[in-house]
Amino acid sequence: MANIFHGKRVLVTGATGFIGGHVARRLLVLGAQVRVFARDTAKAAPLVNAGAELVVGDLRNAAALVRSAQDRQLIIFHFAGVLGHQLKSWAYYREVNVEGTRRVAEAALARISHRGVHPPAFDRRNEGVVAASPEIGVHLCNVYMQNAPRKL
Q1: Which residues make Cβ contacts (< 8 Å) with residue 108, sequence separation at least 6?
Q2: Are 16 and 56 in contact (CB under 8 A)?
Q3: pLDDT (tens place) for every residue of the chain, 152 residues total
Q4: What is the pTM assigned to this prediction?
Q5: Cα 17 to the chain's mean position, in Å?
């Protein structure tokens, strides 16, 4: 099987977490140029030591997300979020998990909008987010979605 990630530039949000960390490490092993988006530099240090580039930021900061996703050829893996056992307010969960996913989608779409592809509208029904563009095939969803992802 061909290694489709060798030499590819990828961004991993949530790379200091369980799933995102495993994905980031595997991508490094496969020869990808990995950029991690993380709040905690100490937690990201093992990935940086393994060859990843670090962009310090938070899903609540749209400017940091846009900065992390500037490369038009970047493949984005979005795993960042707040888990239930962290005992935060519902508003905080929504801000990070729902609005943060929306900001990731906007950052992904912002890097291609200058090519004449218009960013799609966001569907906020059911407190979820879906972004899709028939021109580029971007699809994002989060765990709060009650419906399957669909093209808008």
Answers
A1: 69, 76, 131, 138, 140
A2: no
A3: 568 889 989 999 999 999 999 999 999 999 999 999 999 999 999 999 999 999 999 999 988 888 888 877 788 888 888 887 778 888 998 898 889 988 988 888 877 654 433 334 444 443 444 444 444 444 444 443 333 344 43
A4: 0.74
A5: 13
